[in-house]
Amino acid sequence: MNKFSLYKGRTVIGYAFLIWVYLFCLTCLAQSPKPTTLQTISGIVSDANGALPGVTVTVKSTTQSTITDTTGKYSIQATEGDILIFSYIGYKETTVAVTTNSVINITMTEDATTLQEVTINAGYYTVKDKERTGSIAKITAKDIEQQPVSNPLAAMQGRLSGVNIIQNSALPGGRFSIQVRGLNSIRSDGNDPLYIINGVPYSSQSLGDNTVSSAAITGLTNPLNNINPADIESIEVLKDADATAIYGSRGANGVILITTKKGKAGKTSFMVNAFSTVGKVALEMDMMNTQQYLAMRTEAFANDNIATYPANAHDINGNWDQSRYTNWRKELIGGTANISSAQASVSGGSNNTQFLVSGTYRKESTVFPGEAHFGRGAIHSSINHKSEDNKFSINFSADYTGDKNTLPGRDLTSRAYTLAPNAPALYDENGNLNWQNGTWINPLATIEGAYITANQNLIANTTLSYKIMPGLEAKAAIGYNEIHTSQNVTVPLSTYSPFDTANHEALLMVNAGNGRSYIVEPQLNYGKKWGKLDSKILVGATFQSQKSTKLAQTGSGFTSDALINSLAAATTVRVLSHTVTDYRYSALFARLNLDWDNRYILNFTGRRDGSSRFGTANRFANFGAIGAAWIFSNEKGLKDNKRVLSFGKLRASYGTTGNDQIGDYQYLDTYQVSPYLYDGVVGLTPARLFNPDFGWETNTKWEVAAELGFLQDRIFLSAAYFKNRSANQLIGVPLPGTTGFPTIQSNFDATVENTGLELELRTENIKSKDFSWTTNINFTAPKNKLVAFPNLELSTYANLLVVGESLFITKGYDYTGIDPVTGTYTFRDYNDDGQISTLDKQAIMDTAPEFYGGITNQLNYKNWSLDFLFQLVKQQGRNYYLTSPLAGTMANLPADFTSHFPSNGTASASQIYTTGQNGSAVDAYYNLLDSNATVSDASYVRLKSMSIAYTLPSKWSKALSAKIYLQGQNLLTFTKYKGIDPENQSMSSLPPLRQFTLGVQLGF
Prior knowledge:
Elements: H1 10-30, E1 39-47, E2 50-51, E3 56-59, E4 65-67, E5 73-78, E6 83-87, E7 94-97, E8 106-107, E9 119-121, E10 126-128, E11 136-140, H2 141-144, H3 152-156, E12 163-167, E13 176-180, E14 194-197, E15 200-202, H4 210-214, E16 232-238, H5 241-244, E17 255-260, E18 266-281, H6 290-303, H7 328-333, E19 337-349, E20 353-365, E21 373-386, E22 392-408, H8 413-418, H9 445-448, E23 450-469, E24 472-491, E25 507-530, E26 533-556, E27 572-596, E28 600-611, E29 620-630, H10 636-639, E30 645-659, E31 670-678, E32 681-688, E33 697-710, E34 715-727, E35 729-734, E36 743-748, E37 751-767, E38 771-788, E39 809-812, E40 815-818, E41 825-827, E42 843-846, E43 851-861, E44 864-874, E45 876-878, H11 919-929, E46 935-937, E47 940-951, E48 961-975, E49 993-1003
Parallel strand pairs: 1-8, 14-17
Antiparallel strand pairs: 1-2, 1-5, 3-4, 3-6, 6-7, 9-10, 11-16, 12-13, 14-15, 16-17, 18-19, 18-49, 19-20, 20-21, 21-22, 22-23, 23-24, 24-25, 25-26, 26-27, 27-28, 28-29, 29-30, 30-33, 31-32, 33-34, 34-37, 35-36, 37-38, 38-43, 39-42, 40-41, 43-44, 44-47, 45-46, 47-48, 48-49
């Protein structure tokens, strides 16, 4: 079998390097000195936040122009008396006359009325913000750089309407979940958006193995951990049908476009950015101290009529010091995580050719004891070239990241909250792990094991375009992505107590995942203006090939822990899974945009997709949308009088997109290797039934919106209402048991609906020469509902879903308080049969967010800038009842559980204490875990990020620009949540860290 690797791809990289050198030489030639009769004018262009790259500097009435580099520097030749014009989108145009002074520094001010001219990336095309007919949210490098995050999703939290992002774990490389306008698919693994990085589709599915990941600390990680945030120029999120239909079968859950940085024309410049971060757990929960804990244990034994403490009750029978107290949160997760990051870049070029090369290194430790850390190295390069006649252009970018994560075997958060407060010390007097004569399992034993992951990721993209004739342009985009993932989980013998007489074996679990994909997209763009009608036509095709392999194995029977990392040293080796998947995808797409007099805009998009994931009967499908906008502020009655209403637009869209997130080969009659031997021979067993008739889940979307600008757009309001319906749900249809299969994969006539209101408000509160204050508010009120599910009661989802309720629900018992006689939890008997059974699980617990949003403020005073974001979420969530042990057993509990029956009556937080011998109390405890008592208010307001920066005045140094900044992350949280953190709602996952960052940025 032919295999492609980064090593064998050296030829491609070599050719790319030669092209880069050739174009760089052209750049050098293009920067040859001008005639000496002209005066060279240079300087730095900045705004209130510092250096301003990309500003166009033009000599009035001439063709002489240049662009400021990444440090804001420019150089241009002019004569005394010439007028220099400084222009940049979003800023007021500035003019200055050339004198005998050869240095002219300029400070530009923002102009809200030109913000509508900002260009938005819509994937296959770009559109001005004021002219877009679809719903597109955007953040830029400026927003990302103010947060010391390792995953781009973390930088998006609280900043975009309609985009709900949850951090599931604060571990380095930890998990994130994202929902763009809610859940569309009943399948939990069918709601990921489509990621596009520089035009290259990026799989949202991890190459990690499920079995290996379940034995590891982080589980399956988010693939975007492999993307370096420091290299990102902008992130756009496409939400409605008008924006996503051009992506056809993959746009139902939204599309996230990531664009990396490019070089700027101007003198070659260097930029260095370095920062250091310290982080600690931001939130914790009060737990019982030793006195409260032992009182609980004493009462539990008394309640169970046990007078003599058992031999294994070490916490209370005298084996452990009953006067000892340890704050296990401080010992196990109370450390300080340190992050160090450095990035260096060089960029420059002429008006025809620009280049950028940057390198980043990041190292991050954990709050756990030990030396575990996460390290990442990244290289980003970009080169853009256009011919002198502006007909031909080529854009090339390549991003390579490599990271390695060395974590302990398990997350210690759970042990930090459940260990008895009088448990023994972690180490003995000799500095070795303390096993206290075999009376406990030392929590640091898991550090003896390790979870090591390593990733290598290459994304390369080349776009070539040629203007055949005025208005007609041919374009070809070629992309390549290759990723390698390795997982290594070890459980050495040293993780077991030396007093444990069981026959344990050291264990090694490994997985190697490799994936590569190609994409080629030829396109034709044509634009023509007939009088007041401006038309744009786009047609193109997509050809994509994707192949991935995964091999997971386990080894045991090592003669020594020193050999545990070598699978060859294992006496027993077993293959957990070995999969090879091949995916082919092709499509035709088109767009027609009509603009009449910059007032009435129509946008038509369509796509026909073909995918190898579906059988021959339904391999192709059509998707499309129409978007319309009316810029009524350009009507004659309003156009010339914009003092109050400076901009007004109404827009609407309707269309269909699809969802193909079902995995490969789902329609085939497939077999898997049997785990059993027959006469010493390995056999095959059926794994899936044949069904060639199922097709894409379809999502019908419509939206209406209004955008209003007042007082020269100093107040800008956007409001949108959306309604999405996802049908043809790809789920398992129940089959009779005689078939040997419980379900068959098929389209089911179930419908999920998402509706919601999105509001965005931008205000310029103060704007003067030295001081400005801008506020951005986003607000989303979503509603998720299962509209239809025929014969739900006969399906495997009968106990999970309810028609008319959201997909976020859980059905459980209805908690009714504590029985005044028995002292145990009680629940509603719905069928009045005198007992509590699964038939009584009728209470609905809905954890769907009621609303979420964010408030960002940006203040600038001379060379100082302050930026802070408040994130707010209104929701119900799972509380500490779900993860707390049975009250009275050998495990610590939240301090609230000191309120118990009978001391505090039937309104207590806890039922009667028991060591586990009270059968009624034990049954009631397990029923409580499945009840609505575990759901309560989990709303919160969080000061998510804050950044303060000082930029050295340009007059201090003509050759150097510098900025010093201090950043904070997860600084304050206001909540009534019964638990640790209302975001991840878990006592077993590390909660968010409060981080402080000090950094410096230098340009020269």
